[in-house]
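Continuing the batch. This is chain 6 of the set; chains 1 through 5 are on the previous pages. Same settings as before, nothing changed between runs. Recording input and output for traceability.
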Amino acid sequence: MRLHSLPVLVLVLAACASSQTPQYEFEPTPRLYGPYSGTFTVIDAYSTPSPQERSGSFDLALRGEFYHIFPHNHPYPPCGSGFVYVDDENRITFQRRTRSDDNNPFPSCFYTADFDWSLIIDGGYDYSTDGDRIVLEKYDAEHDRLERLVLERSY
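Output for chain 6:
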């Protein structure tokens, strides 16, 4: 190998190595890590005089930068896993898992054909904390729906 080819080889190897490492916009936060139990509530027709509410209980695990939802009753909330990040002091983002080779320690989820895909917990939620309690909310304008998750840390 010629000596002037060595810098090019080093640059190519560095580019290959860095492309395999995921780059995240947000840093995970350890203060929210742990197991939680809670209620997932969906309020349809939220902006109308007669909104319709449906809910279900679930367990949520936050481990490292990963999350997994274990529903007690299908389909509220649906099973889900992926990445979780705290954007700032009042916003948390769930990025739904889309591949099985991402080193996520939690299993993938499967859904039936009649499943309402808009119910998957994904995207940004406003949150507030009060001791071991976390309340997350997101308004889905496309479906005129409010999603609310009320979580209590499980020990």
